[in-house]
Amino acid sequence: MKILLLICLSLSQSYANKIIGGQNADEGQFPSMALQTNLGSFFCGGTIISEYDVLSAAHCDRISLTGHQVVAGTTKRLSGGVVKAVVGKVVHSAYDSSTFSSDIMILRVEHAFRFNDDRFPLTAAPFAIDRPAEGTPITVAGWGDTDISSGQTIPTDLQYVVVSVIADDTCNSAAAYNGSVLDGMICMGDMAGGIDSCQGDSGGPAYITGTDVVAGITSWGYGCALENKPGVYTDVAYFSDWIALYMIG
Ligand code: ARG
Which of 28, 103, 128, 178 is most buried by a 10 A CB count? Predict the structure, then answer.
């Protein structure tokens, strides 16, 4: 009986793979997608929102500016694209690492991204002004863990998965996050599990599917892709005035 249960568990875990449950992105599919490196090592995602500004999560701010770079214009974690030094950052003053409240940060790059360069498909994502309604399809992208069953499995190719906006009531229910989803957060995922962002996807974009509009910043979750534990994202629309104030454009 115990052995049967273990087999079922390992089968369901190996099934729950990729971003979790996603697929490889095509080159140029997400032209505002960026990744952050510290002394050359990948640690978080980001979204280009202007030629000098990259939107990310405040909890990705745990390193000094020395050795901090942003890479964009490639789906490959380890090659291609443009590399920019990060020379400044604005971390939301209300960010709280115990609740993940106000998990938002803007990075400033030293040299402007060039959006009309044929070699690299780059663009600035418009940021959502209105919170997407429950059920809205959302595409989450990143180089985060694709396999929670075997420690960290960080992919080389950018992964993406389509999830949907979950109502706060549902996400804050006793079976789910029981009140931990605060103002300025938005749940996006599938209450049934199987598809989700995961460790390493943080700071990266959740787009309104089929558009370049960034509506969420990958922030937190209990495990990854578990039933009743969807991903929780910073609600970009909630912070749109803050973004407009602090980006330099
Ligand atoms: N905090 C994680 C990171 O730093 C992101 C977690 C997202 N979790 C989830 N189940 N969607 O990469």
Answer: 103
